[in-house]
Amino acid sequence: MAGVPPGKTYTPGLDFSGVTYTCPAKKAQSEADRAHEIIKEKLPLLHQINALLAVTFGDRPTFFIDGRGDEAKILESCDDEPDCRLNIKPEYIIQFYENKLEPRYGPASAFSRLPEPTEDVEQVKRDIEEFGYGLAKNVLSPEQVAIMRKAVVEQAAGERKAGIAQVDGGPDGPNQRLWTLINKGDDFLDLLNHPIIDEFIPWALGEHAIITTYTANIARPGNVPMQLHTDQVAVQPPIRDIAFGMNILFYLEDVTEKNGATRVYPGSHLGQIFTVEGSAPAEAPAGTALIVDSRIWHATGPNREEAGERPLILLFFMRSFIRQQENNFLSLRRSDVWPKLSDRHKRMLGFYTTGALGGVDGEVREGLFVEWKDGVGEMRAPNDRS
Asked: CATH number for the 25-97 domain, one of 3.40.50.800, 3.30.1050.10, 1.20.1250.20, 3.40.50.300?
C-alpha cells in the first residue's frame, strides 16, 4: 500500500525490495515544478485574494504570492508579514488544477429564507435538497429529551471521572465527545428504533445504508469553533453530485447561536461559494433533529454562554459501500452489548450482506447476517436463530 513500507518477506524468491519504478527525489522536484507552473498560469486571477500569501511546499523554501495590487506577483522573498501561510503538498495544487480535489465553485446565492423547525416531513426534505439541511421539530418529546440528556451527561461524567474523556474545542478541551454510543447504554440502543431514521435515511441513501458513527457532542462555554469541514471528506476524489451520507443530530437542549449552534453554509452541498459571513446557526428547540446532507460545509459554533452545556447526539449514516469510521466488528467484539442487538441494529451496523459486500469467507449471498460464534464469524439467514 502506498506510503507503507513492505514488511518481512516470508517466501524466498518473493523479495521485491530491490525493485523501483520511480525516483522519489525526481518525482518531488517534478511535482514542485509543475505546481509553480500552475500558480504562474493562474496569476492573472490571484490578485483577487487581495493579500500576501506565504506558500511552502513541504521542506522546500517558502515563496510568496503578492495579490495586494492590481496584478499578482510571485516573490522569492518578502519582509512583510504575510496575511496567511500555506504549507501544502505540490501534488495537491496539481490535483486541484486537474479537478481531482475539490476547490469551491459556483456562484453564491442570496437566500430569501432559510430552513425553520417544522413537523412537515416533506418540507424538511425540500429544505435538505435546497439548502443541504433541514430541521424536523418535536422528533423527541420532552420526556424523551430528558431521558437521552441524562444518559449523555451521566456517561460524560463517568468518562471524565475515569480519566478517559475525549475532549476538544481548544487547548483547555471544554467540549467532550462520546464515541461508540452503541456500547454505552440501552437508551442509545432504543434511540435506533426511532422512525425518523426510516423516514429520511432510505430516502437519501437507499435501503442498505449503515451507521458510520454514533456519537454525542457536548459544547461548553469557552470552546473554540470547530474547523470547517464536510462529513463527506473521506470520499476522494470528491464527487459533488451525490450525497454519500446523512447525519441526524438530536437536540437535547434548546440550541441557539449563543450556546454553540452548528454553523452551516446553506447551499454549499451543491458547490456554492461561501464566506464566513455566509454561515447560519442551526437554531431550534430541544427535541428537534437537525438532518444534514454529508456534502454541506459546517462546524460546531462557539458556546458564549456563561455556564451550562449544549449536548446533542449525532447519528451518521453512509451508503453501504463506504467504509465506516467506527470499526464495529472490533468495537463490539468483546462487548456484552452483542446479545442485546436486534436484527435492525445489526443491519444498521453493517453485520448484513448486501449485494457483493459484507460476507465472511467468501459467503456474500444477499440478505445474510454476520454472527459471532466460537470466536469466528458465520452467516445466518434472517429469523434463523439456530
From this structure: 3.30.1050.10
